[in-house]
Backbone:
């Protein structure tokens, strides 16, 4: 009986499921890092355009990825009920919704230049960013469908293939970037457009590999994932939509929190913004650890929920929270003990402004240690709530915490009270603490 599983067994199964997901999320970050580094070698204007275009793509992607992420708990719960037909239907409708969303938003990418100009961006940067986004936008549909397949395979405990395909994608991205950005190996020199083509290539190749794996692996053939793919299931589509839209909006609210913080930091100064970017990049790396563990918790909680085993569900949740808490404590210790050398890794210390950025970044990374616990707990709480298919109320709790508490606190502390960047980050801490506390309260209230 799963309800008789020990906490050690729960911990082992959470880590076996979660560590490959952690690795795949870190590899996904590496895709963006390689684009930034390699375009940065090409030119400053191209780098600014790609950063602008990629961040815009990501915002649109986050909203649409909610449908893909909804597939994970739905498939896991269906497996808990031994309902293999529902596994296929939910996944198929997740793919349908992702394709529809990707097609619907493409005009935003096609007409991105006038949008960027209206937002006050430089004309040269906007033109190059528009070239990038018109090509990269073609990858929205495959990128979202890849996310659906990753959710499907992860719910089936096939997390290893998700990791290996993502790692292969990083290598492929580097190779295509090298060929098309700089015009190596006889290919044309395309600059930012080359980076966009590389991104689309990676997404299409990843889609083909994951689709073939899901379709051809003997152990997975019984699900008949692509059987009568053209046939709609309106009930399943409605369920995926109702669960997935709040997930996308929650991700948008959280992403917007940090976009807004960067904007406000830019009002304070260039040095402060550079330090802010470095500290957030480091914090994002540790955040990926919690995202992977949160996904593992979603799968396990959904499976127990499908089985109706509330004892195992609560025990698995407690173990996942403890693991995430331990990871957060390790991150706190790392940030507090090695903040300065970590920030120095991102700087050329021979440049005159580097010392100022280093000093300020060290302070901000110390503040990042403050929100490690809260950030880890809020993403874990979201994962647990998705496991019991509760996303609408958590969306509102997160939005209130981030936008009605976090952002106003950041603004008041940074500007009227005069604490600058330090006050801005303290406001982020307040917002994340409110999110963590309210979301955890919501989960334990539901499963009590």
Residues:
């Amino acid at each position: 009986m799963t309800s008789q599983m020990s906490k050690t067994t729960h911990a082992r199964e959470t880590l076996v499921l979660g560590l490959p997901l952690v690795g795949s999320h870190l590899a996904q970050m590496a895709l963006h890092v390689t684009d930034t580094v390699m375009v940065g070698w090409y030119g400053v204007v191209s780098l600014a355009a790609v950063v602008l275009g990629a961040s815009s793509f990501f915002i649109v992607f986050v909203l649409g990825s909610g449908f893909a992420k909804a597939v994970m708990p739905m498939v896991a719960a269906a497996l808990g009920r031994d309902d293999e037909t529902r596994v296929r239907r939910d996944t198929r409708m997740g793919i349908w919704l992702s394709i529809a969303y990707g097609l619907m938003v493409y005009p935003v990418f096609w007409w991105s230049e006038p949008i960027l100009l209206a937002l006050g961006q430089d004309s040269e940067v906007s033109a190059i960013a528009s070239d990038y986004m018109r090509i990269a936008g073609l990858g929205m549909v495959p990128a979202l469908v890849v996310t659906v397949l990753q959710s499907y395979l992860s719910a089936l405990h096939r997390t290893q293939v998700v990791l290996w395909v993502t790692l292969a994608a990083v290598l492929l991205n580097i190779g295509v970037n090298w060929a098309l950005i700089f015009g190596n190996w006889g290919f044309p020199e395309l600059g930012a457009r080359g980076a966009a083509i590389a991104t689309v290539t990676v997404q299409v190749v990843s889609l083909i590999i994951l689709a073939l794996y899901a379709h051809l692996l003997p152990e997975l053939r019984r699900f008949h994932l692509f059987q009568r793919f053209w046939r709609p299931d309106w009930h399943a589509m409605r369920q995926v939509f109702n669960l997935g839209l709040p997930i996308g909006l929650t991700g948008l609210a959280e992403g917007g929190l940090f976009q807004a913080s960067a904007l406000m930091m830019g009002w304070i100064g260039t040095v402060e913004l550079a330090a802010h970017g470095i500290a957030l990049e480091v914090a994002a790396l540790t955040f990926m650890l919690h995202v992977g563990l949160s996904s593992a918790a979603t799968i396990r909680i959904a499976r127990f929920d499908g089985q109706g085993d509330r004892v195992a569900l609560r025990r698995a949740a407690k173990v996942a929270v403890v693991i995430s808490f331990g990871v957060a404590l390790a991150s706190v210790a790392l940030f507090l003990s090695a903040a300065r050398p970590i920030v120095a890794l991102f700087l050329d210390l021979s440049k005159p402004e580097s010392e100022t950025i280093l000093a300020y970044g060290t302070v901000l990374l110390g503040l990042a240690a403050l929100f490690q616990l809260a950030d880890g707990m809020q993403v874990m709480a979201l994962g647990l709530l998705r496991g019991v298919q509760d996303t609408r109320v958590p969306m509102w709790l997160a939005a209130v915490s981030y936008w009605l508490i976090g952002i106003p606190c950041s603004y008041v502390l940074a500007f009227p009270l005069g604490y600058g960047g330090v006050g801005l980050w303290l406001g982020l801490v307040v917002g994340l603490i409110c999110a963590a506390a309210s979301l955890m309260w919501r989960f334990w209230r539901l499963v009590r």
Notes: The chain has one domain: 2-447. The mean pLDDT is 89.
